Amino acid sequence: MALLNSYFDQQSVLLTGAFGATAVLLFAASDSPLVKRKNMYLGHLSSAFIGVSSYSLFYSISPQIAVALAVGVSIGVMVFFDIVHPPGGATAYIAVYGGQKIHALGYGYLFFPVLIGVIILDIIKTIQPNKKHYECKSENY
């Protein structure tokens, strides 16, 4: 991902914090329903859309309200549609507080870096040999 980032010269736009959390889930808790492809893709994309929309509509009124709505509505949408992917909350947060480079992307944020980043992580997980990982068992909770 860092190589792709340097190729596009986006100065760390691609390396959003949400991808770090997604990587932990993918590679250390891959049995979790939270990292099903549907959850990973739709959780990030819906949260990115909600985050950009919240920034566009509410940031000028109050950044705090914009970020609270972005994350809260993202959680609600993910729960309602059964696409919960916790890093999606960070994706929404970053859309609001990510800075000028993120804001300049507008709804393009959904495609680059969000969709491209998720695709890269999915490809890496698909081609990576299946190594021992922690299993998520309900009795551990």
Automatic annotation (TrEMBL):
Source organism superkingdom: Bacteria
Domain HPP transmembrane region: 2-124
Residue intervals passing through the bilayer: 12-29, 41-58, 65-84, 104-124
Keyword vocabulary terms for this entry: Membrane, Transmembrane, Transmembrane helix
Protein name as it appears in the record: HPP family protein
Protein's organism: Flammeovirga agarivorans
